[in-house]
Design a protein that fits this description.
The chain is an all-alpha fold. It contains 15 helices and 2 strands. About 85% of the residues lie in helices and about 0% in strands. It has a two-stranded antiparallel ribbon with strand order 1-2. Strand 1 and strand 2 form a beta hairpin. Helix 4 runs antiparallel to helix 13.
Length: about 425
């Protein structure tokens, strides 16, 4: 109990804006698993085609890029807090709109993906901007460690609880209305909207400033930032698969959404505690060690999935994926923000210039990963894509380690 009290006191020592951001992100962490897992499972259930999930996801990423670009212009006139709150709210509402669609052809999938991606664009770019401007390099390990702890815990509990809720309520009659599987998904989405309202209420307590410089659109960058964009593309490549592949593999080889939540819960709790401890005690110079640990875990998971391609292989892969994501994100975001701090000094530009450019880097990686998956699925088979595309992506991720080391070294010379 004394240890918990000390951790709470350490949290209270953070600046008011940092506390507001962490509490807002804690609440939104209850929304992310629904977007990341159950939307993909919902599309898969209605189309029975893994390629449809990938197509939906591609348009979601296009939506992120579109609103990230628009957000730069809006920041000239609208408070960053308002834009961040809008992204939080619209993400819940857009999910509800998708659930109301009667059929899910490619046109409907494209529109639904674009709308949900548009909401995510406002959320992520303004989240990066607020975090960048309200933290320092020395405090970012703690910030992202605690945030990863939130996301890891909710990635366990939310799929588990919602999976159980969907399986239990399906076919039940409530107040004279028969609840089918689609009705269960809609009830989940209503709950998501309620959580987003609470998140916005917490966010409103913060006092945040917009960028001073208004110009943000540039196409030429120094070598240091080009290296960071390559690292972002590698991250985006694996993101494109991790949003869709686990749901597809589990529904194909293991079972339903309840099983999906149970699998992720096995390793997630210990990982959440590990990441929080690392964020609390690790120094900036420890980031490469954490980085390579996450990359190796993910690559091992893809090998098990590809070689076994069975329920056992999928379970091992998902367990490795749950460990990998927070271990990768914990050093990645501080490195990205440290690099932005450095290139702002070099090029004297608006911070949002690099946040927008970073989204383009992520998009290129995401698009490459998804197009690779769809191309292999059409040209050879879906099973081949699910087996070997993941191994290829996992192998390419290993390049990120020496690249990240080089970026950190160059950042230190700028400071």
């Amino acid at each position: 109990m004394n240890k918990l009290k000390r951790e709470y006191q350490f949290f209270k020592q953070q600046t008011p804006n940092v506390r507001v951001l962490l509490m807002t992100n804690l609440l939104y962490a209850f929304v992310l698993p629904v977007v990341g897992v159950f939307v993909g499972a919902y599309v898969m259930r209605h189309t029975s085609e893994p390629v449809s999930v990938a197509f939906y996801q591609l348009f979601m990423y296009i939506g992120i890029i579109a609103t990230s670009f628009v957000n730069g212009f809006l920041l000239r006139h609208v408070s960053v807090k308002v834009l961040y709150a809008g992204g939080i709210l619209v993400s819940g509402l857009s999910m509800f709109a998708m659930m109301l669609v009667k059929s899910l052809g490619f046109v409907e999938l494209g529109i639904a993906g674009f709308v949900l991606g548009a909401a995510s664009g406002f959320f992520w770019t303004n989240r990066y901007l607020l975090t960048l401007n309200n933290t320092t390099d020395s405090s970012r390990n703690y910030f992202f460690g605690l945030e990863s702890f939130f996301f890891s815990i909710t990635s366990i509990t939310v799929p588990l609880l919602i999976g159980a809720f969907i399986s239990q309520i399906d076919g039940k009659e409530i107040m004279g209305c028969l609840i089918d599987i689609n009705g269960a998904y809609r009830l989940v989405t209503v709950g998501v909207i309620v959580v987003t309202l609470f998140a916005v209420a917490v966010l409103w307590r913060g006092k945040f400033a917009n960028p001073v410089q208004k110009n943000f659109l540039y196409f030429r960058f120094c070598t240091l930032w080009k290296k960071m964009l390559l690292l972002a593309s590698l991250k985006g490549m694996v993101q494109g698969f991790l949003v869709t592949a686990p749901a597809i593999l589990v529904l194909k080889l293991v079972g339903d959404e309840g099983t999906l939540g149970l699998i992720q819960g096995i390793s997630g709790t210990l990982t959440a505690i590990l990441v929080y401890v690392l964020g609390r005690i690790a120094k900036p110079e420890d980031r490469p060690k954490i980085f390579i640990a996450g990359l190796l875990v993910f690559f091992i998971g893809t090998l098990f999935n590809g070689v076994l391609f069975s329920a056992t292989g999928v379970i091992i892969f998902v367990l490795c994926k749950v460990i990998f994501q927070p271990l990768f994100d914990l050093p990645y975001y501080p490195i990205m923000m440290q690099t932005i701090d450095a290139v702002v000094k070099i090029e004297k530009r608006n911070e949002y210039t690099y946040i927008l450019s970073h989204e383009f880097g992520l998009f290129l990686g995401r698009a490459f990963g998804l197009i690779l998956f769809m191309a292999l699925a059409f040209a050879i088979s879906q099973d081949f894509a699910l087996k070997y595309a993941l191994i290829l992506v996992g192998a390419l991720q290993l390049i990120a380690y020496p690249l990240a080391q080089n970026i950190i070294k160059q950042n230190q010379t700028v400071r």
